[in-house]
Amino acid sequence: MRVKSSLRKIIITFIFALIVQFSMAQTSTISGRITSEGLPIENAKVDLVGTNFSATADSLGIFVIQKIPNGSYKIRVSYFGFKTELQNVTVNEEENKVVNFELISSQNNIEEIVVTGTLKEVSRMECPVSVEVYTPLYFKKNPTSNIFEALQNINGVRPQLNCNICNTGDIHINGLEGPYTMVLIDGMPIVSSLSTVYGLSGIPNSLIERIEIVKGPASSLYGSESVGGLINIITKKPQNAPLLSLDIFGTTWGEYNLDLGLKLNAGKKASVLTGVNYFNFQNRIDNNNDNFTDMTLQDRISVFQKWNFQRNHNRIFSIAARYMYENRWGGDMRWEKQFRGGDSIYGESIYTKRWEILGNYQLPMREKLMFSFSYNNHNQDSRYGTTIYDAQQNIAFSQLTWDKKIGKNDFLLGAALRYTFYDDNTAATATADTVNQQNQPQNILLPGLFVQDEITLSSKHKVLMGLRYDYNSIHGNIYTPRIAYKWTLNNNNILRLNAGTGFRVVNLFTEDHAALTGARIIEIKNELNPEQSYNVNLNYIKKIFVKNRTLISFDAAIFYTFFNNRIVADYETDPNKIIYDNLKGYAESKGLTLNMDVAFSNGLKLIAGGTLMENTLTRNGITEQQILTENFTGTWAVSYKIKKVKLAFDYTGNIYSPMRLPLLGELDPRSPNSPWWSIQNIQLTYSGLKNFQIYGGVKNLLNWTPNKGNPFIIARANDPFDKDVQFGNNGQVIATANNPNALTFDPNYVYAPNQGIRAFLGLRYNFK
């Protein structure tokens, strides 16, 4: 019996060995190359759907998957910023199957891309919060020298110039002014307050991986200043960046811009990404013949460096730093540096020095604990005619988050601490005693706690609830809750409902350029209280696949925000003053927005969007439109590629409806409302050379400038120091023969750039 048993085991073992050997012999290999526009895509992920077989493309875009059993599979290639591609493949015995992929960039915000809308990386389609994501390829359709200008092609987002002379500005989201928008770099609130006006320029475009935009209050996660929305600029990971990238272009106006990116390995466990941006414009142009520069002259350099360290268990550790210096001036065409701060020839001269450091460190623990930190120092040395504005702002920020999943609950708990130091030479940091007035810098401490729970009710239903508590050392306790609901009807239809609150603590002199020019007297009626807002947003995404491989995507939203304690700058009660006070009433922001993306099988692509909105102030029962806010904005980008000749065509543009403008009185001859206006651009890009792209085109094709239809833009440009202006006993301007319209010098009547039509030519180089 023992012999039979042993014999049976031997036979079974022998048969099993034959089966294993046969099975091993029946395996194959799939290999191929992944490219986009002829360039290899490094680190693209390749996997066989429904299996554990996967690979990652190397620096040449080549991938290899080995020991694949015979059969039919669906091979999938995915990489951030590109559409996921699928191909069916069948492999036979010991076959080496070659499958190549040409990826198409997902250049808009409709695609399913990884985002950090809830302070953790998730698929956009799975995120309960509506987040728009844009990649650098989208902004290359209309190349710009800085982020501020690049945002002009995003629906519902408008770069607003605040001064005709120094060309500083802020970002409007759905009609709300720049102070309501928080700008982050890698999730760190380092572009805020003073730097919102001057810090948006100089971020190297070569280092940007994507830009995420959340419209509506996000204070429950990010705190103050994110009342209207937030813009999160995500920089590249060194492993995703090319070894060397270069982008240089110039315009017929005399603008020159350089973006340089460089990746290096610092040992076996560290990689370094360096970016340099340099912009120069020194050409004095006065096409509107007011003897003032149409565009401020600028000399700016920004250097950014980011270190990534490899750690055990793939824990995160990165640290980055940036330094920016800018010298800009605008004013009388005869102005020279020796006139800075004087009263003979008017000029606005601004020196900016700024440095910042930020990092993320995952604690070496079994639980996912992430510590984030940032610090920035911003120094401003400005002269607006004879008005001196010297300011320093330091912001230190730290945050610890704990990401924990328990059953169907995905928790995020966090503690944050923010310290802000601000000092300037104005009344904003002076004691209330006007007789013995002394300097009193602001020191604001803002600790906060927040909790978020994302509950997966089922495969189609998710709920997110969040609550944040902050203690402001000046204003006390602040609570900001929010709730979000996501309903996935199917893979092509998603509905989101978001509601929440926001708050904003105000520093007027860091946010309103008009308060600094000296053209008007600043009056603050009462002690200003923080603003509060209540917001609801309904978002719907739909995808339609047509048989001829045409993809149509829609992203629609309805939004409503109600404001308490809205702080309003009154330009109209007294044309010589800007009067600030909390609104004795309420403010509303409401509207609807639609983004559309159509990708045709013949290579034609259309991205278009429109926002219909109304931003109003209601006081004493009277409702009026907010100044410098349009009722409609639209953007578009039409692209077509001729693959045979490696040529791409891009036609981009925007359009804005009329907005109410600030006048100096009833006799001011300038139009009280802007007309409909549009900035349109065309570009051709040639990619037929290895690692090179040559591009060129025309900006502002219609040659639109705001002086059209107006007698002048800058009031009293011939008398910028008001030496020939006469005032009555009540402080009001008196109409005279030399000043028949009773005006004072005022450069704040601005809604569009003064740059007319211009050609541009550029070169890009990428070495993987």
Detail the topology: elements first, then pairings:
Layout: H1 2-25, E1 27-36, E2 39-40, E3 45-48, E4 54-56, E5 62-69, E6 71-78, E7 85-91, E8 96-98, E9 101-102, E10 114-115, E11 122-123, E12 132-134, H2 136-139, H3 147-150, E13 157-161, E14 169-173, E15 181-185, E16 188-191, H4 194-198, E17 208-215, H5 219-222, E18 229-235, E19 244-251, E20 255-265, E21 270-281, E22 297-309, E23 317-331, E24 347-362, E25 368-384, E26 387-406, E27 409-424, E28 442-456, E29 461-472, E30 476-490, E31 493-504, H6 508-511, E32 521-524, E33 531-545, E34 551-564, E35 567-570, E36 577-582, E37 585-599, E38 604-619, E39 622-625, E40 632-642, E41 647-656, E42 677-686, E43 692-699, E44 726-727, E45 733-734, E46 758-767
Parallel strand pairs: 1-8, 1-9, 15-18, 32-36
Antiparallel strand pairs: 1-2, 1-5, 3-4, 3-6, 6-7, 10-11, 12-17, 13-14, 15-16, 17-18, 19-20, 19-46, 20-21, 21-22, 22-23, 23-24, 24-25, 25-26, 26-27, 27-28, 28-29, 29-30, 30-31, 31-33, 33-34, 34-37, 35-36, 37-38, 38-39, 38-40, 40-41, 41-42, 42-43, 43-46, 44-45
Instruction: Estimate percent helicity.
Output: under 10%
CATH class of the largest domain: Mainly Beta
Main sheet: strands, sense, barrel: 22 strands, antiparallel, barrel
Shape: globular
The Rg value, from CA coordinates, equals 29 Å
Q: Which secondary-structure class do the elements indicate?
A: mainly beta
Overall number of strands = 46
Head-to-tail CA distance between termini: 69 Å
Low-confidence stretches: 12-25, 107-111
